[in-house]
Amino acid sequence: MEAKREKRITTKVGRVVAKNSSKTVKVLVERLERHPLYKKTIRRKRIFMVHDEQEKCKIGDLVRIVESKPISKLKRWRVVEILGLASREIDTENEGELI
Length: 99
Description:
The chain is mostly beta strands. 0% of the residues lie in helices and 44% in strands. The protein has a single domain (11-84), classed as CATH 2.40.50.140. The chain has strands at 11-18, 24-34, 41-51, 62-67, 77-84. It is flat.
């Protein structure tokens, strides 16, 4: 019998940096890497186009993304969950009044 292999699911954690069109966000993923010769730790960055079905993500949110089948020309990732919300300013009712 032929054993069925399970596909390894690729997930990444990143921060939402842009929300330009509907159901699409840009997520910045950073990773640390050692230089092979000089052994210095280097921060590598990459921006992914990610599908956000519920449109709940806002700029600055920390999200977990998972690789999926191609959704469009540039989108191959989906938002799985929002790990942390961005710090947003709280609007006050007395903002315009002078005391």
